[in-house]
């Protein structure tokens, strides 16, 4: 029988569920529910369970584990959120027994429920589903903020040589600010205004560059240079063989890749984008967390 796992990617405005073929490392089917992070606990859990049932369908009894990609701070062993900036209803609540209850008889009552940081699981999913699976990989998501995950031989790293505290690069010092202030969607807007005096989102500047705007093309070249300067020290310190970029800004990867050089570390755009955290949550079955009740 094909080994099946189920994943949930918990976002601030929606939840996405995915049924995963764990042998082929492939997403078979997804389902999505819109639900704001401010919703009451019962509403959140109900949306998660509805998405899970739709993705699993008749295969629910065969699912071997449920993995959740959640924003931090979150205690994956205790299954409790420590977030204060979003998901107020989840704060301090043990989620495993509540999830088992709301999933009901469709799934095994002994179903292992595993949690992981969403940025870590983006990186882990890119590693797990890759045909090469390098020993050391860094995943970076460039969107409204900056997310990161450091993967060493299939395990997300929260500390150790070359790893920032908690594996988080967003708050690494960068001049008078933080790394997120330089590498994110809002950073593109600020850079565009500084270079040209004009306002525009990352998507706006990408569209302009592809239409031949020299100013927009120079903006992206400068962004690639800045990204290389900021990320190269981390890639070197960790000994990364590969750095994978996700998030909305990476949709313009072709525009800034020519100036983003990290020495011997290969840089590529995400192969899976929004599916990567689902794949990473499926990969949790191979970690020591599998034995947690």
From TrEMBL:
Pfam families in the cross-refs: ROK
InterPro entries xref list: ATPase_NBD (IPR043129), ROK (IPR000600)
Signal peptide: none
Coiled coil: none
Protein's name according to its UniProt entry: Glucokinase
């Amino acid at each position: 029988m094909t080994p099946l796992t189920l994943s949930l990617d918990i976002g601030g405005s929606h939840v996405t569920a995915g049924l995963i073929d764990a042998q082929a490392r492939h997403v078979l089917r997804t389902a999505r529910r819109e639900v704001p992070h401010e919703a009451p606990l019962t509403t959140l859990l109900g949306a998660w369970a509805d998405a899970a049932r739709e993705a699993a369908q008749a295969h629910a009894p065969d699912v071997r584990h449920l993995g959740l990609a959640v924003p931090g701070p979150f205690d994956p062993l205790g299954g409790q959120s420590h977030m204060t900036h979003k998901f107020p209803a989840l704060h301090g609540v043990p989620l495993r027994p509540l999830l088992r209850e709301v999933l009901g008889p469709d799934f095994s009552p002994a179903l292992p429920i595993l949690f992981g940081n969403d940025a870590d699981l983006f990186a882990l999913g890119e590693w797990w589903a890759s045909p090469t699976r390098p020993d050391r990989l860094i995943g970076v998501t460039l969107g409204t903020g900056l997310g990161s995950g450091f993967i060493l031989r299939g395990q997300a790293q929260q500390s150790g040589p070359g790893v920032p505290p908690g594996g988080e690069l967003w708050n690494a010092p960068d001049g008078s600010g933080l790394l997120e202030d330089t590498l994110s969607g809002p950073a593109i807007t600020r850079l565009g205004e500084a270079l040209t005096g004009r306002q525009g989102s990352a998507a706006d500047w990408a569209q302009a560059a592809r239409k031949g705007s020299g100013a927009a093309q120079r903006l992206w070249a400068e962004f690639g240079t800045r990204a290389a300067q900021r990320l190269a020290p981390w890639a070197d310190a960790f000994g990364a063989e590969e750095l994978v970029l996700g998030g909305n800004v990476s949709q313009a990867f072709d525009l800034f890749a020519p100036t983003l050089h990290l020495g011997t570390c290969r840089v590529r755009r995400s192969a899976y984008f929004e599916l990567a955290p689902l794949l990473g949550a499926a990969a949790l079955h191979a970690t020591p967390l599998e034995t947690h009740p």
